[in-house]
Design a protein that fits this description.
217 residues; alpha/beta; Rossmann fold; four-stranded parallel β-sheet; two-stranded parallel ribbon; 8 strands; 56% helix
Length: 217
Amino acid sequence: MDVDDDESVRVAVASVVEQHGRIDAVVTAAGFGLSGPVETTPLADARAHIETNFWGTVRVVREVLPHMRQAGGGRIALIGSLGGLVGLPFQAYYSAGKYALEGFGEALAYEVAPFGIEVTLVEPGNTATGFTDNRRRCDPSDVYAAVNDRAVGVMERDEREGIPAEAVAKVVEQVLTSGRPPRRVMVGNADERLGTFAKRFMPHRLFERLARGTLGV
């Protein structure tokens, strides 16, 4: 389905119900990367990015909910990101969409719990996939060029050296088959998980100073 298109999503979900009689689970994983400074990224590119990464998820979830309610339950796994817990410089719109997904998933969980529908936010860190090479890059001005290129280069290196996609898929499988799925589950190396933990308790200036080297800024 094309998650940017209401009718495409409607037809796709309807076809699953027609063939199988019900929908027990959905994994919302559609999305792409966008890099560039906030100041110089065209708003059309930023809107298109969030249209897919956030609103695409919303479309799919809204379309499956009536079927899950009628069936008496279901599982929804929303693929978030550690970039939705820690802001990523020069990927601000990516982080914005993933932060929005965090709030959406948490609020949704309250609403659908009475119907036996479970919602989990799966939050991968750096993962080696085609996402990296397919990132859309917006040209920075000279003011930002050097640090933009350095930061994005560091993050893309870390992505290529990240965990395999199969590790994320295994966690998704566990979420969909667990008797008591968690609200959130992080998938990544120990340093990434420690970083999100440290952000909660460190003064923000200290955390950002320590994070600058990791993020390439």
